[in-house]
Amino acid sequence: MTDETPPEPFDEAEYRRRQRSRANLMGWILGGLAFLFFFITIARMMGPK
């Protein structure tokens, strides 16, 4: 006999909350990178020729 504990019940609300949290984080990271690339491009255009 094994002493396995039964799996916890699937909590869809918690799963959706975590999924939304990860999606928001990835959105902020991608937005930040786009913002950074934009300003690097502007700075290079304004730099010495």
TrEMBL record:
Keywords (A to Z) from UniProt:
Membrane, Transmembrane, Transmembrane helix
Transmembrane region(s): 25-46
Out of the domains of life, which is the source? Bacteria
What is this protein identified as?
Answer: Cytochrome C oxidase assembly protein
The uppermost taxa in this organism's lineage are: Bacteria, Pseudomonadati, Pseudomonadota, Alphaproteobacteria, Sphingomonadales
